[in-house]
Structure formats: C-alpha cells, structure tokens
Amino acid sequence: MIAVRNLSVTYRSSEREKRAVLGVDLAVERGRMVALAGESGSGKSTVLMAIPGLLPATAATSGEILLDGRDLLTCSEAELNAVRWRRIALVPQGAMNSFTPVLTVGRHVEEELEVHLGLSKREARERIPALFALAGLDGGLAARYPHELSGGQKQRSAIALALACNPEYLLCDEPTTALDVVTQRDIVVTLRRLVDEQGVGMLLVSHDLPLAASVADRLCIMKDGRLVEEGEPRTIVDHPANPHTRALVGALRELEEAP
Amino acid sequence: MTTILQVRDLTVTFPGRRGGTPVTALQSLSLSLEAGESLSVIGESGSGKTTLLRSILGHVPPTGGAVRLFGADLASASKGELTALRRRCAAISQDPYGSLPPTLTVLESVMEPWLLVHGEEERAEGEERALGLLAELGMADGDLLRSKVRFSLSGGQRQRAAIARALVLEPELLLCDEPTSMQDASTRGDILRILQKRQGRGMSMLFVTHDLFLARRAAPRGIVLHRGRIVEESATAELLASPKDAYTKALVAALPRLGRA
After folding, report:
1. Quick one: pLDDT at residue A75?
2. I want to staple B152 with a disulfide (CB 3.0 to 4.6 A). Which of A143, B67, B147, B243 is the partner?
C-alpha cells in the first residue's frame, strides 16, 4: 500500500512561497483505483509527483509517503530509483507529447527494460507485443515513430512504457486530457482493466470530475492544497458534503441537465 | 433575417504529403447562419472543423463549392474586401499558447485589435473596453494585467485573455474552437454566459466542441462533423437525447457524466 500521511508541500522561490499541498492523507491499495479530482492549481499533480520523489528542488516537503511502511520521503535517490518504474510507475501529464521524436515508441519501452531490468536487446524486444497489448495497442505500432501515431495511440504507448517493469502501482496524471471523448472513454476502460485484471494500484489525477467519478473506487476532491472531501464516488456526486464539492457538482449538473 | 454566412457544397482537398493520396478535409458541406443565430459544430480531431473555420475566413481556398460571408462571395473578393469582411468576425483558436502575442502585456494583447482598427487616438476607450472584458472574465488583478503574457499566464488564463481579445471589437460573427477546453467547470459556465450575453445583442457564433453538453449549452442547433462530412444535423438537445447517426451515438455514449443515482 502507498500511504500518504499529512503531506505538505511548499514551493519556494526568491520572492515568494506558495503552499501547494496542506496536510493531505491518502491511501492507494493494489487492485483499487483512487481518483484525485479538483480544479487547476488545487495541488493534485503535486501530490502525485511527490510520491515517486519527482518534485522540483524548490519544493519543501513534510509528512510521510509510506510504501509498504517504508517512508519514501527519507529515501536516497538511489533507493528511489529502485522503486521508480519497478514498483511505482508514472504516466506524467502530457506524456503523449514527451516521446523522443527520433526513436520509435517501441524503442522507448525497450530502453527502459534494458536499463531498469537489465534485459538484453533481444529479450526486451520480445516483451513488447505483450506490453503493448496490455495498454490496448497493436504490437505492430511499436515500430512507429511518435509523429506517426494519433494522440490516443501515443497516450497508450506512454501507458505501455509505464507498465514495462510490471509495477505494483501506477500514477496517472491527466491521462485523458486533450483527447477526443471516444478515445478518453477507451483509455479509461484500459486503465480500469489494469486495476481489475493485473491488480495494479492506481492513482488517477483528473480535473474531469464526471470521468474520475465514473471509473474510480474512491474519490478525493482537492481545493487550494487541501483534501476537502473523500469517499465513494457515487455518494460524493449525489450528496456532496463540502461547499466546494457542491459548487463543482452544481456547475457540472447545470451543463449536463440543461433543459 | 439577414443571412450572414452561407457555406454551400464546400469541399476542401489538400495535396498528399510526398506525393501521397490527397486528403479530403471537407466534403460537400453546406450550412447557413442568420444574424444573431448560433450553431454548434460537434467534431473531434480530424473531423475537418479547423478547416471549416479557416475556410469561412477565406484562409483556405475551396476545392469545390463556395463561402458567402455577409453576402459576399469570398472567391471573388479582393484582398481589401477580404480584410474588411474578416474585421467583422473574430476567431478563438483552440491553442491559447499560439493566440496571444507573448511579448505584450495581458492588457496590451487584449487591446491590440482595437488599436489596429481605431488607432492610438482611441486608446483610452480601447483600454476601458479591454479592462471591462477582462474583469468580466475574472481577470481584474492589476499586476497580472500589466505583466507579460509569456511569463505570467496559465493555459486557462491565456484562453480567457484570447476570448477578451476576440470580443474587444464586438464582432458580428464569432468563430470559436473549443474555447473553454482549459477551464474549470465553474469558469466554463461563466464564459458561456458571457458569450450568451453577446449573442443576446445580436452576435452570431459558430461554436466548435467535441463535448455535446457544451454544444447544447452554446447553441440551439448543431451539426455533427465526421471525416469532413455532416453526419447529423438537428437541435442540440435532440442530438443528445436521441442521436440517429452511429457516430453521434458513439459520442453521446462516451460523454463523461455525473448522472443521477
């Protein structure tokens, strides 16, 4: 289990301090999906990036991030590198646009297998079709360059990349943003399948509350760095307790149920 | 009623890359818009929506068919006439990062179209209008307005500044391509209300989106664009409630929604 306890993060620059996250508690278990929703600037991505220790150097962090009881916040870079990809993998925000244009998408995945698992080129290549299939992609697409793929295919390639080392946990930051609605739905179905069939523990960060609520087992709403509501998605959506959640749900319902 | 936009049998074909097969972006597309009327264009990437908006402003020559804007045939309009026609329209691009001059301040970038048309002597009025629009869009912080676009604005703020910039000349026709894609739910509602206020004063609008809920909110009538063709045309409420075409059905089914227990 990943247990985030009383996490606070402050970004410091020479002129100012910004408290991005304030006392957040959160647990991600294997085979379950937790969604972190909220408006832009609410601190969702900061929480997600704090878990594998990938916040910028300007971020001061306090609290605990326990991976099966071991606090990742006190781990060295070397210790964190042993956890990253192999135990906790990441689909970062804008992943589909972060591939190196001169390598095929398959080569990206092979490289990760070689570096992190010490596989030979050939062993790495043999794993590609199965990994791409898990991400809902035809293995033949591995030979394509990023510019030859659609946004959805690139996003799936990023998911294949994250799955390469068979991680226990997957952290996905806005994995459906900037994709068409049909593609969004397909990607979410793939993510849900990874949780149900592979037992992956997933943290999904999304500003899209209807989407997050429709797919997650547990929903957390953030506002101004704090976790303002947490619970079973249907309950939150139908009976939001926090004023901010109520406003958010109200604005969405207004659009959804317009006469 | 005055017809301000008439697109008839518009076909746009782009030559294939490196001698490949030509790409047909729009296929025999027809639509019309009366003064004060709005239309939602529902389309995903590759549907031809961007080509449609560009064709309406005469930026893409048609392979077949014609576009009449404010009664004038774009194909036979002179360069000067085209400029005059375009000046009565405004466009909001789907990419707010490419639609504001990065070296200007936020306020300057919103005022710029006004100054280009009305000149320096009317700067005071332009500034007043720009400030009013920005305030309406929730951007009233003086420090923010006087800082450079490239240093200070988030995607959502850029998008709102781009909307203000598009409205500063009070266009008769507003063409918008996913203008609220980077907004939070509450801000999105505010923006739609702002656009609706202008529509109430006679502005016409083409509102491009892949979100059918937004499409319904933005305009009473809508067309669904798929691979360059209109596959369905109806009241937007109808498109959502009882889609007929297979593609529209898929769009409706995929829409994330809160629903009711």
Report:
1. 95
2. B147
